[in-house]
Each structure stands twice: as C-alpha cells, then as structure tokens.
Write a structure and sequence with these properties.
The N and C termini lie far apart (56 Å). The N terminus is likely disordered. The strands form 2 sheets. Strands 5, 6, 7, 8, 9, 10, 11, 12, 13, 14, 15 and 16 form a 12-stranded mixed sheet that branches. The chain has a 4-stranded antiparallel sheet with strand order 1-4-2-3. The radius of gyration is 22 Å and the shape is globular. 22% of the residues lie in helices and 30% in strands. The chain is α+β, with helices and mostly antiparallel strands. The relative contact order is 0.13.
Length: 342
C-alpha cells in the first residue's frame, strides 16, 4: 500500500466570501463533504491566521486559512468491494451511470465490506487519480440506497467543481418516477417546506411548512439544520382509485426529499419502509397484484432523467435511465386498474 502524502491548501478570504469558517470552506471546496471539513477543523488541521479555531469562527476579509490533510493515493482502495457499473454515457470528464437498488453511494455506518458507488467507480477507473473526498471520489450528488436511476460522476477536479455548482444553483434538471400509496389531490402540485432531522427517529426527516418556519424565525429560534426543499409532483396514472403513478421534478435536492414530501401529501412512496411501513390495499385488487405489491422490498422510486451542462464544452445534455424490471413488472400488473392516464 502506498504511503499517503501530506498536502497543504492555502486560501485568503475576500470581502465577498467572509462568514463562518465551515460554511466558507464548504463553498470554496465543493469536492469535500461538510462532515469531512468539520472533522478537519476539529482535528486541528485547519488554521486561521496560523492558529486552530472552531467551525463557527467568524471570518474577516484578509484572513488566511491553511488546511493540511493527508491525501489517500487512488490505488489504496482498488481492492475495496465492487460491482460492475451500468454505464449510460462516458467521456474524459464525466461518467453517467444507472444505479441499481441496494447500492449505497459512499462508505458510511453499516457499509463495511459492502460495495458502494464510490468503490465501484474507483475500481472502474483503476489507477487514475480521482477528484474529491477520499471516501467520495467524483461524487457530485447522491441517491438513497434503495432508489434507482441516473447519476453523474466526475472524473476531473474541474468537472467536479462545475457539476457541484450546477446542483447548488439548480441549473440542472432532475425528474423521478414514483408509485404512491394514495391519490394525489391535484394533477400538478408544487410543495415547498423545510426539512430537518426527526428528533424522534434518527433515520428519518421531518417537514415544517414555510409559514411555521417564518414564525420560528420571528420568535428568534435558531434554524440551523432546517433546509429548504421544493418539489413538483405530476399525476400520471391512477390505479384502482388507490395508487398514483407520478413524476416528481426537484428544484432542490435534500436527503429523503421526495419521500418526505410524498408522506406529507398522504401519498407515501410504495415500499418505503421508513416512512410508510404498512401498505393497505383495496380488496378489489386481484391476489397476484396484491402479492406483487406486498412483496416489494424497497421504495418504488426511480431517478429517470438528469439534465446537465457539460462541464467542459458547455453542451446541454440529458440522460434517461429505464425503469428497473421489478418496478416495470408491478406497473404492468396494475395497468388493468388504470382509471386515468397522461
């Protein structure tokens, strides 16, 4: 195994970029996750004007930030568990894949010894150095473990920065397909709220309305950890006056956003054992249809379309991943109950 080398990054704060230390570094170093940056600060690897400080340190124009970290050589993790990638498109800057169900994006709690998108990407790229966080090389965005569909991975630091900027400023396009347990009250619904970690269940997120958030702010409550989320739901088909096939377009990309917003609409994603563990089907559904739906072991949520601006030549590109066979099979069984279609 190759020895990791120490690298140092030096930044100078300008008038436009002052603010909290951790927030500044997240903006300036989009290749690295917020948690990684905060770990550097806690470990004393980040110096401001030559001295270690805390994440919430208030920066001033002219401050010098020195970051020392050990970069892991790309080939150190080549033997990590891997699976073949389903590649939809590839060039020198980006790789577009169709992520299968059951695959986590990057290593974390509970993933030891299991393949991830990150380990598969490292294995595919071989000895080529990859940009970004050592545990999340080339990772621009994420999908939940059981969500399938199209993802973009960056091969170069320039591509990673450019793509991360697109996701941040919402200049890309993301559309999902979801089977919902319930009938959407309208054909088109725009839903916006603030998502935050559910204090009663560490794995779930909860939602707060815009009006509630405004009242909390007016009352002086600290809203750290509350993140604005906006989704557009479109009803496509209704099966048996009970299940809805919908497309969902994201304006923001928060953790569990579609799943939480669907639950808020009282139309949880079918198979979502975290937010809707019980699926109650009408007796009018045939036994084979009921059995197929009750056997669904994951949320039926698929990232169908992704539109991006190419990070090198500026072309507008669109990619589509076909529905996985188990999702498609369920829809074929339900088609006999279709009472509305687009």
């Amino acid at each position: 195994m190759a020895r990791a080398e120490q690298t140092t990054t030096i930044l100078t704060v300008s008038d436009a970029n002052s603010g909290r230390l951790d927030q500044y570094l997240v903006r300036e170093l989009p290749s690295y996750s917020r948690s990684t940056i905060q770990n550097w600060i806690r470990a004393g690897l980040v110096l401001v004007n030559g001295a270690p400080t805390k994440s919430g340190f208030d920066l001033s124009p002219g401050d010098t930030i020195e970051i020392s970290k050990a970069d892991r050589p790309a080939h150190d993790d080549i033997d990590a568990p891997s699976i073949p990638l389903d590649i939809l498109f590839e060039d020198d800057a980006i790789l577009i894949i169709n992520k299968p169900a059951g695959l986590t994006i990057h290593p974390g709690a509970g993933t030891q010894g299991q393949p991830t998108v990150a380990s598969a990407f490292k294995a595919y790229m071989g000895s080529k150095a990859l940009p970004g966080d050592e545990d999340r090389p080339g990772i621009v965005h994420r999908l939940d473990k059981e969500t399938t569909g199209v993802m973009v991975l960056a091969k170069t630091p320039e591509a990673l920065r450019h793509l991360a900027g697109q996701f941040k400023d919402k200049s890309n396009f993301r559309e999902y397909v979801a089977l919902l347990d319930g009938v959407l009250p309208e054909d088109e619904i725009m839903l916006e709220s603030y998502l935050y970690r559910d204090p009663r269940h560490r794995l779930r997120f909860a939602t707060m309305s815009i009006e509630e958030q405004m009242l909390e702010v007016q009352a002086g409550k600290e809203m750290q950890g509350y993140r604005y989320a906006k989704s557009f739901f479109n009803k496509r088909k209704v099966y048996g006056n009970r299940l809805t096939l919908a497309t969902v377009r994201l304006s923001t990309g928060r953790t569990h956003q579609i799943r939480v917003h669907a639950k808020q609409l009282k139309c949880a994603v079918v198979g979502d054992n975290l937010y809707a563990p019980t699926l109650r089907l009408p007796q009018g559904f045939a036994p084979d249809v009921r059995a197929a739906l009750e056997a669904v072991g994951r949320q039926l949520l698929h990232a169908r379309r992704l539109g991006i601006i190419h990070p090198v030549d500026g072309r507008r590109l669109a990619f589509e991943a076909p529905l996985p066979i188990e999702f498609r099979s369920v829809l074929e069984l339900l088609e006999k109950y279709n009472i509305a279609s687009d």
